[in-house]
TrEMBL record:
Residues 6-233 form the ABC transporter domain. GO terms for molecular function: ATP binding; ATP hydrolysis activity. It comes from the Bacteria. This is ATP-binding cassette domain-containing protein. Belongs to the ABC transporter superfamily. InterPro entries: AAA+_ATPase, ABC_transporter-like_ATP-bd, ABC_transporter-like_CS, P-loop_NTPase. It comes from Perspicuibacillus lycopersici. The keyword ATP-binding applies.
Length: 305
């Protein structure tokens, strides 16, 4: 069985004169959680729609589960679920009855419905009607309904949009559970890098239809790593002091600068030790390039939230 779930090569979509997608190439392997990040209008939904076959492409190739061509893609898409165009939830029905309605044609058992409700953490909603659900609960039910067909690859369009911070954390946990318990590969989107920063294993930054950067979770962590920035005119002496303090994860970045990647809460102590050793410290402090700053740097834009 191929490990490549999605291979989109040079995919373009043009609306009139506007290129909503401009030669986007993305490859996803089984088990990945791929976060597509971009501001409003960057092309995230358009990309997801083309992958699901809800929208035709003007250029490029799409391969799903190793299948290509019209027939092959049609078959492959049966193994996928999506939240871009899900059936509307019935506000007058309970969560369970909503799933029952959607499961009606698929021969899905009550046991499976129970499992989905539990998986999404909405098993306790009982007789409560969906119209009285919070946005977070509704989002969970919407995802539960995409799981009815037991997809191997799930596409979620902005699943954290509109949720409060605790709702975002819960949604992240749910998505991680899907990956760990069901082995589902997930492509999801957000206009905020921060919202997906703890769950995605890979990131693609989309800007004006172009994929401007692709990086793994580890690469992102490195690029936005927090450290103590130490400026001193005596780098060599400072390094000796750091060694004496048992600090080994540091980097001399230039003739007067050191980045220390550990003991971030110990700035005062490190400073004291340096001063005691007669090291002239011109600046010491913790810095971190915030994720959203990093994102703006890549897209050269201003934040729209
Ligand atoms: N049916 C359409 N006709 C014309 N232009 C469209 C159509 N759908 C999308 N667009 C344009 O294509 C570009 C990409 O839109 P898309 O919805 O994919 O962006 P997005 O990143 O998903 O943003 P959002 O978060 O706002 O949904 C936008 O400039 C949008 O105006």
């Amino acid at each position: 069985m191929s490990d490549t779930i999605l291979k989109a090569t040079n995919v373009s979509k043009i609306y009139g004169k506007q290129k909503a997608l401009d030669k986007v190439t993305i490859e996803m392997k089984r088990g990945m959680i791929y976060g597509l990040i971009g501001e409003n209008g960057a092309g995230k939904s358009t990309f997801m729609r083309t992958i699901m076959g809800l929208l035709s492409i003007d250029e490029g190739d799409i391969e799903l589960f190793g299948e290509s061509g019209k027939k092959g893609l049609q078959l492959a898409r049966r193994r996928m679920g999506q939240s871009i165009e899900t059936p509307a939830l019935y506000p007058e029905l309970t969560a369970r009855d909503n799933l029952r309605v959607q499961a009606a044609n698929g021969g899905v058992s009550e046991r499976e419905i129970d499992h989905l409700l539990r998986l999404m953490g909405i098993e306790g909603t009982g007789k409560k009607k969906v119209k009285n659900f919070s946005l977070g609960m509704r989002q969970r039910l919407a995802i539960a309904s995409t799981l009815i067909t037991n997809p191997e690859f799930l596409i979620l369009d902005e699943p954290t949009n509109g949720l409060d911070p605790s709702g975002i954390v819960e949604m992240r946990e749910i998505i991680q559970r899907l990956v760990h318990e069901r082995g589902i590969t997930v492509l999801l989107s957000s206009h905020l890098l921060d919202e997906l920063s703890q769950i995605a294993t890979h990131y693609g930054i989309l800007h004006k239809g172009k994929l401007v950067k692709e990086l793994s979770k580890e690469e992102l962590a490195n690029e936005t790593r927090q450290y103590i920035e130490l400026e001193t005119t005596a780098v060599q002496k400072a390094v000796i002091v750091l060694d004496e303090l048992g600090i080994s994860d540091y980097e001399v970045v230039h003739s007067t600068g050191i980045h220390i990647y550990e003991r971030l809460d110990d700035v005062a102590r490190i400073n004291r030790a340096l001063v005691l050793a007669n090291v002239n410290v011109t600046r010491v402090g913790t810095t971190r390039q915030k994720l959203e700053d990093y994102f703006l740097q890549l897209t050269g834009g201003t934040t729209n939230v």
